[in-house]
Amino acid sequence: MFQFKKVDTKKEKIEDAFDEELIRFLEKINPTDVPDNLTSFYYTNINIEKNIDQKIKFNNDILHQSKLLNYFNGDYSKNKIEKDINNFLKRVKKNKKYTLTVKDQIFLDSLRFDGIEIDKKYNDLFQSDISTIPTDIQVMINNDEKGAALLRLAEVIGRDKLERIDDDTMYFIISTLNQLNINILRNKILLKVLPLKV
Predict the structure, then answer these.
(1) I need a labelling partner for 41 at 20 to 30 A (CA). Which of 24, 92, 160, 165 fits?
(2) Residues 40 and 83 placed together within one structural domain of the fold
(3) Tens digit of pLDDT for each residue in 113-169?
């Protein structure tokens, strides 16, 4: 019978073996062959080693990759972000081909929690859904147990890299931070997971 031997990846200096193999595999794929729903995964993971010090690349045609992200750096006044976000949503409503993604929803929910007023006529474009938050975390939020909720989020994230967490899980993480009013941490996470980096 075959038995698995436990390997200390740090001691063996192979802790990044999976990342390196994933990069090699993805480098063999032509970016134009990547389906639309996997492009974020592709570009995030093909640049695993380079992501740390990369600069944000803005794409003003996609909400969660637009220059509006600078709001989370503190580079936008409340009046300017309200005007610009409503103008963007006006274009989205006219453009039937653009569909708001989960990342766009994360972006908009965070703005709303910060008190940014989005015109009611755009309410049909997106809906907040706090039901995605696990019940135990929602109970902690309701009881104002910030420390316990943060520890539970740390457990959810685990040893994984933020960029690799799926969009639905990231949605409930950001929703939790919004409800707990922990904006500094939320903003750092948003600037790490929403934009493209080059």
Answers:
(1) 92
(2) no
(3) 999 999 988 887 777 666 678 899 999 999 999 999 999 998 888 877 777 888 888
Report how many domains make up the chain.
2
Tell me the two tokens of residue 83: 């005007």
Q: Looking at per-residue confidence, does 187 or 75 come out higher?
A: 187
Q: Give the pair of three-digit tokens for residue 178.
A: 């919004």
Cα(43)–Cα(162) distance, integer angstroms: 14
Q: Domain check: are 157 and 128 in the same one?
A: yes
Residues 67 and 147 in one domain: yes
Please, which residues have CB within 8 angstroms of residue 174's CB and are 6 or more apart in sequence? 106, 109, 110, 186, 189, 190
What distance in Å separates the CA atoms of residue 62 and residue 195, rounded to the nearest whole number? 10
Ordered alpha helix ranges (H), 95-182: 102-113, 135-142, 146-157, 167-180
Provide the residue type at 51 as one letter.
N
